[in-house]
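ok so I'm stuck.
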Amino acid sequence: MNEPNLPWWEALALTDMSREQWESLCDHCAKCCLIKLEDEDDGTVYYTDVACDLLECETCSCSDYANREVRVPDCLRLTPDNLEALYWMPPSCSYRLLHEGNPLPPWHHLITGDLNSIHEAGESVKGRFVYAARVKEDEWEEHVVEWPLLLSQSVNNA
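replied:
not stuck anymore, here's the structure
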C-alpha cells in the first residue's frame, strides 16, 4: 500500500503506523469521550452528551491521557490491534474513516495544519456536553443525542 504520492496516512495501513503516526490521526473531536449506552437486545449504540470528567472543555483533550485507563476503567485505548472496536466510534472518527477506506475530512489538523480547525468547523464536542459528575447515571438516557453520529457535508464531500 505504500504509494509515493499519497500523504502518509493514506499510504500506510493503520497496522503499519508508528505509535506517533497513530496518535497524530486523532482529530480531537472527543466524541469517543462521550458516554455511550448500548441496547442489550440489539447492540445499538446511543451517544449521550455526557462526557468523561477527564475531558478538558477548551481543548477536547484528556486531562490525564497517560493514566486515563486506570482512572476511568471503561476508557478504551484504541490501537491498530483492536480496530474491531471502531464499530462504536462516530462515523467522523479519523481512525474509522481510514479503516473504511475513506479520506480524512478537510477540517482534520493533518490537512489544515491547525489543531483548532475541528472546533472551528463545529465537528468537536466543544461547548456541547455536560460532565458525568453532574448527571446521575439513571438520567443518562435523558441525554441521548444524535449529533455525534451525523456526518457533516465536509466529511461526505471529502
